[in-house]
Amino acid sequence: MKVFSRCVALMALLLFSLVLIGVHSQEEEEEEVQEVQVEEVPQEEVQPEEQEEEEEEVVLETWTGMGKACTCDCEGGDSATGTPTMTTSLLATPPPQSRPLDCMPECPYHQPLGFEAGSVTSDQISCSNQEEYTGWYSSWTPNRARLNNQGFGCAWLSKFQDNNQWIQIDLQEVGVVSGILTQGRCDADEWLTKYSIQYRSDQNLNWVYYKDQTGNNRVFYGNSDRSSSVQNLLRPPIVARYIKLLPLGWHTRIALRMELLMCMNKCTSALL
């Protein structure tokens, strides 16, 4: 009987040990499953981020491959009317033909070329029929077409009043022109009401009209009195050495005081 009792006790202990081992193994398996699930969750969350990064890389490659991206380095200034130091060499090599800067739809900084300040010389400004400016007209030559000019001979007066007249500016080197300011005659009610612009980078090339978004020659609207200045920005700016303003409409007489605005950014990859 004692032997039998001991056997029963040993069997009970053995069964109990097996139950404990089974429970412990089951708990370990459940912990392993939970760890695997925890490790898999970040993988599912990371995949969309990796896809977004890959998409961004594709977009970037597509943009830079379009040939319209350009590196623009602003030389200073904090407003459209500021006057930061102007870059003296905008272009290392002049383009074969003038054209708008497609990569820069609007120039953020502008500086006057120097009509009003006097840095634009009389040799840089010419007009139609200039050889006929004698007598009274000798006081109203294109050199007088300077913004805010005052006194007798304060503006350029065209000797003829028709659509064949023009005034031309030679920048002396290819530059980025971003706008134009116009005024009427200081001592009489005479001014331009509308005009168009032509440009070219070399005197041996044909003149090119500045176009609007529809591809037509853009008409710029000018003044409505003798003293106010009207600003027209060029969006996009143009690369040129020679600028020609052609009167299309006027009040009483073709009379003009003006200033050109130069873009303060340099763009190196869109000049073709």
Automatic annotation (TrEMBL):
Do you know which Gene3D superfamilies this protein is assigned to? Galactose-binding domain-like
In the bilayer, the protein is annotated as:
Peripheral membrane protein
InterPro entries, A to Z: FA58C (IPR000421), Galactose-bd-like_sf (IPR008979), Neuropilin_MCO_CoagFactor (IPR050633)
Signal sequence residues: 1-25
Keywords tagged on the record:
Cell adhesion, Disulfide bond, Membrane, Secreted, Signal
Principal localization reads: membrane
Residues covered by the F5/8 type C domain: 107-263
A Pfam family that the UniProt record links to this protein: F5_F8_type_C
From which domain of life does this come?
A: Eukaryota
From the UniProt record, which GO molecular function terms apply? signaling receptor activity
Localisation per UniProt entry: Endomembrane system; Secreted
A GO biological-process term: cell adhesion
- Write out the ranges of the annotated region (Disordered): 34-55
The name on file for this protein is F5/8 type C domain-containing protein
Give the organism the record lists. Answer: Esox lucius (Northern pike)
